[in-house]
Write a structure and sequence with these properties.
Layout lengths: L15 H14 L11 H8 L3 H13 L3 E4 L3 E4 L4 H25 L2 H20 L2 H17 L4 H13 L1 H9 L1 H19 L3 H25 L2
Antiparallel strand pairs: 1-2
Length: about 220
Amino acid sequence: MLEEPKTEFDLNHRTMKDSVADVFRNLILTNQLEPGERLIQIRLAEQLGISRTPVREALQKLASEGLVTFSPYRGATVAEFSPSELDDIYSIRIALEGYCARLAALRITDEQLEQLEALFGQMKEEYRRADRWQLLAVNREFYAVLYAIPNRPRLYDLTMKYLDMANLYRRMALAQESYFKRIVEGHKELLAVLRERDSEGVERVLRVQMEEIREMLQEVIHEGE
């Protein structure tokens, strides 16, 4: 039985910029800060009881993640989430990643399976620590290893390109408590069919999981409209 993740947020082990970025990221991804909303630095700093510098640095960090945009006239605003962009990206991801996973199941070695198992172990540890964003980083590494197995460089590059284009939406998904609680079980299921070298099963599991994520994110976006 998987342990419930910790909920404490220890500021002593994080920089002020990262701590503030975590606060804003959570507010954006849970629609408490709405798409298009202006983020006025002095007001945010006053609300948190801190100087403007860590607020500015946190917003710049979130801009690099695609969650915040800057313009000369409006300053920082919450990024707009596009249902049509989400649908386009996930339609392509489902096709590419399903195919990659199918090929991987046909070629995977015991050593590569052990590498994926080790990354899955890291994911479980990040889940227990409730470190969603480090879990996301390990999750990307898991898929990078899996999709490299077919040894098809152009297919790999294209697949990872679209996976990274979905970074904003992947963060949004992981911010949803229902998905966060399922992510480990989903990878456990995927590894089970990989161990069997079941190529059709691997593709089916991956496609179903990603389709569920797309539908959940569409609901989240529409709720925020």
